[in-house]
Model the fold of this input.
Amino acid sequence: MQQDHYDLLIRHATIVDGTNSPRYQGDIGIRGDRIARIGDLSAAKGTTEIDLAGRVAAPGFIDAHTHDDRAMLSDPDMAPKVSQGVTTVIGGNCGISLAPMPRPIPNPVTPPLNLLDSKGEWFRFKTFAEYLDALRRQPAATNCAMLVGHTTLRVVTMDDLGQPANREQIARMRELVDEALEAGAIGVSTGLFYEPAIAAPTEEVIEACQPLKEHGGIYCTHMRNEGDRVIDSLEETFRIGREVGVPVVISHHKVVGENNHGRSEETLAFIRKNMAQQPICLDCYPYTAGSTVLSVDRAKGSARTIVTWSKSLPQYAGQDLSDIAAQMGVSEEEAIGRLLPAGAIYFRMDEKDVQRILKFDETMIGSDGLPHDSSPHPRLWGTFPRVLGHYGRLLGLFGLETAVYKMTGLTARNFGLPDRGVLREGAFADLTLFDADQVDEAASYEHPIAPARGIEQVIVNGVVVWRDGRSTGAHPGRVLTHAKAAA
Ligand code: ZN
Done:
């Protein structure tokens, strides 16, 4: 009797295929880096076989929002991500990209670029092509698709970041955007919220982003304001999308500040209305606290602040700012002055808003994890299992199929990643195998570094990268470009 043979054969899977369709039972046969067959393969054999006994096979999760630009090179096992079932990361967000760096990075490194590397040693790639070449020569465990950051471009083209860019500087930024997109970047990100980009008028962004349209790129933004002026910021984002002629991604959508609690009803209605006119996407992380560089203003608006790293006083990482100030016997403001440069977790959101945004049909899941923080926000290790477990299974915010769709098929479609984010014959063999009854985060604010529960095996381009609670050491990740560049 003729038997089909596969490199990897997954038997008795509950298949959640990433399209939001109902789950079904089947076997999955993988040859090389692709899914060759899905169906009844009981007569087939595999060089390696996995019997799931009814547990779930889903597309590998796509982390819609990361700061993994350097982690992929310095920590290529990508354990915080593959342990959650993530097989692809979108990097270069919030205006912060590791490349290009055609002149030396300022010392000390301009915040928030220091979130990627506070020493500055990794800002070593003169062009975006050089950076992507390094990722291809020394691949990570996960695939990646990268954005070029507007703040990085400001830092390399301007001497006074407190000003709008002049014509010459904008022209130079545009050249660098064009070079990055030509090399394989999938779009441009901005961080208009952050000090080095606050002075950039909307027109500067529109002008610098001009090459996006021709290359089929995307515009992602950490908006100028996520508090009192969030509607103005949404309007600015939509205008940039319209005038450049490309889709926009509202990064880590949220409403911050107690006086804005509940306003996600208003923002989501406004987003929905504008979605009828132009392509708009959004992502979200499943927590009521954010995390970024430490500052007096941000700490003042936060119900609780936890220090995640400090270059000058690293021993305080993981402690509450109020405790640190008490130990020092000084005000919180004075303590911040001693800790800088540093990072922090800020509790500034409302649980109902987080749930409403997560549940919104078009919301993708993105971790916004900060992989180099010594005591990171738990979103770095916990985002995807928390959405499946805490919000899906326990709170019933959505069914399993919808939760998976928000982290796979929807994300691949929005970022234009062909043959990713779905389980079907011919697609790339990126898979996450998990126990839907067990899956949840293990990381917490108190113990933020912990692999998730219930994630059994993770496969990238046909190769197992996570098994039995640990990295396998395989690094089969690829640099992904968007559909138009790939064609
Ligand atoms: Zn951000």
The chain has three domains: 2-59+428-438+450-486, 61-288+349-413, 289-347. The chain is about 30% helix and 20% strand. Residues 94, 222, 251-252 surround zinc ion (CB under 6 Å).
